[in-house]
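Quick illustration, no need to memorize.
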Amino acid sequence: MAKVEQFPDQSGKNGITENIKGRGEQENSASVVDQKTKVMPEELRERSGPPVPDDSLLMGRDIDKTSEQGKQSGRGEAWREKEEDAGRGAQPSKEKGGISRLRRFLPGRRDDEKGLSYAEQIDRHRSRIRAYRLFGVVILIIVVLLAALFFSTRRYSRAEITKIRDFVAEEGAVCVNFDGYVLQYGPNGAACADTNGRVKWNITYEMDQPIISMSGDVAAIADYGGTTIYVMNTKEQLYTVSTSLPIHKVSASESGGVAAILDDKSKTWIRLYSKEGKEVAYFIRSMQENGYPMDVAVSPDGKKVCVSSLLMKDAEVISNLSFYNFGKEGQDYDQHLVGNFEYTNEVFPYIRFMGNKACAAASDSRLVVFDTSSVEPQNSFNNMLTEDMQGIFTSGGRIALLFTDLTRENLYRLDIYGRNGKKAGSVGFTMVFDDIQISGDRIYINNEQSMQIFTLNGREIFGGGFDRTVKVLIPSWRLGGLAAVTENEIDSIKLR
């Protein structure tokens, strides 16, 4: 039978120990603790706290060993605190559980449930994250493709026109779409406003025959036969250039520079101005040697110039396409002339740079695209035309040629080409039009009373009329939203 005694420890305080006599003295500490708990007086039980929970008794061997060490070393108080903590029951269990959960993720420690090492769990976790990300990307791509398919196949049936602001154009002025803004110019001045009617700039001048050239958000207005050029962007007037010779033609560059063809009886001057309005280059062309200049174009960076000239020689009509480079690359060439191409019995009234690396020229019998990425341009595409061309329209990296539809299914056919010269699409339509615009992947055709919108492959998105007279249509980056300038106001057009 077990006997319990109470005596002071070495620190002078009452401690608790057990002196077990009789059979069972060599039993394991777990049995001793069990007997001790059963016979412990109520007074000692209150002082030592509640009994140790069953799950903590599994650690009884360690507890007894620690107790014995505590007695031998005289640390009775420390042992008492440990036993009191153990008597609280829940706290040791929490600490043990937390340590156990932590140790499962230590390197080299096997997971109790999955049997994986920490490194293997990390690899599996990363693989799972990659899978989730891939799944998310796939879902996003599907959503985008479905949205693109929806908008590419959608057809609008009506147009809602709402007044934005009063807008009265000057008498005799022409209104045009100026890179998403409204530009009006005439004999007495020019002004620019956004589609909400807010005026950006307004200038006055006197011209008999104003001519204009636009490239991106830069415009140059000059008086044909006059001596003044006004250069603006969509925000402000940039500069004014005065010439000593009559102006025959101007060409604006997206960089803000301008090229001007000036008449001088038996010869012509071509002057190039920087974005600050300073003359950076000029060259002279003889009528007898080079012919009469038909058109001039400037690259977006303002360094390259192409001139189309018409010459009568031996009863033949000869067209010259001359390329000049006023950058560092062209300094070693005579008069900066880096290339010249001659065509017999053809007239090239239209040339345009389609970026810094391509230039397109159209005659009455062909469309030719030059690669201008190197110093000396190369003929990269040549498309012979078998039909009479009715018009040319450009926007950014695309050029469109208008023909009469010989199949008689439509009145007109518009063939669209990219900067590489390859055909991007064709549009057939019957509208007697006032304007054709290329905006993104859409073709806008309108007159004062109606409008048609097509994709590049010829599918009609909208076809309908207006309840008012439209002077100019301004496409928006949003397909369903456009702006229009009517007789006395600026309106918003929403397609439904």
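The two ends are 99 Å apart (CA to CA).
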